[in-house]
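Sequence, please.
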């Protein structure tokens, strides 16, 4: 999923100069067409396959999650609005590449459309909270705010009217925000990893406790049986 933007961008750039004169050119052009078809259809495919699984049996749902669970990892699939998160993820990258590649002569319209799409995605995440815990949702909102800032920053930084000292200050501020964003996400990754390890350890501990309790019950049953046998033997000895 994370490579979607790079794959689509490379295919889009190759589509401007497709050739079939040699075997290498033909192979490159074929891969370009295949990549474009996959990238354009993937957002709809992810949405359709998820909507279809809601009508399937529990056994079929297990098979579905085994095949396509990677698209919805960490997503709260109980919310209808949340299932659009992967489709939104793909469509935004499609739109960014198409706007940058097809509207090079209209920079003002490019800026307006890109900011409109970015703020729409930010509104969607803020409204539906698509992830399965509050911290992930808040981190995602924080990341989207950083992206929105950098988009505005890139557009304003290129303004030739800005003086040198102002540009230097803006540059240092942007670098500081990037470092802060990386630190926050790194801490989040450590927290999620530690939390997952804690849950797995707790699960193993509960399994061990359950096994020990079952073993104690079996030992207790054997002890009772042993006492019963001894009692029968003693009764037989007394009768003799």
């Amino acid at each position: 999923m994370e490579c979607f933007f790079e794959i689509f961008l490379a295919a889009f750039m190759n589509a401007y100069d497709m050739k079939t004169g040699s075997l290498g050119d033909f192979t490159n052009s074929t891969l370009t067409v295949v990549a474009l078809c996959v990238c354009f259809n993937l957002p709809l495919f992810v949405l359709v396959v998820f909507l279809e699984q809601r009508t399937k049996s529990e056994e079929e749902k297990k098979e579905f999650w085994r095949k396509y669970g990677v698209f919805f990892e960490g997503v709260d699939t109980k919310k209808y609005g949340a299932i659009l998160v992967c489709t939104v993820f793909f469509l935004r990258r499609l739109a960014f590449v198409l706007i940058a590649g097809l509207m090079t002569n209209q920079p003002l319209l490019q800026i307006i459309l890109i900011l409109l799409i970015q703020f729409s995605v930010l509104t969607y995440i803020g409204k539906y909270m698509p992830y399965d815990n509050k911290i992930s949702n808040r981190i995602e909102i924080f990341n989207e705010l950083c992206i929105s800032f950098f988009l505005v920053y890139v557009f304003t930084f290129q303004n030739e009217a800005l003086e040198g000292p102002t540009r230097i200050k803006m540059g240092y501020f942007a670098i500081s925000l990037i470092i802060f964003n990386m630190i926050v996400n790194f801490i989040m990754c450590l927290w999620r990893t530690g939390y997952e390890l804690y849950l797995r350890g707790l699960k193993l501990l509960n399994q061990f406790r359950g096994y020990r309790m079952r073993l104690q019950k079996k030992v207790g049953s054997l002890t009772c049986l042993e006492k019963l046998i001894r009692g029968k033997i003693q009764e037989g000895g007394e009768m003799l």
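The chain has two domains: 1-133, 159-229.
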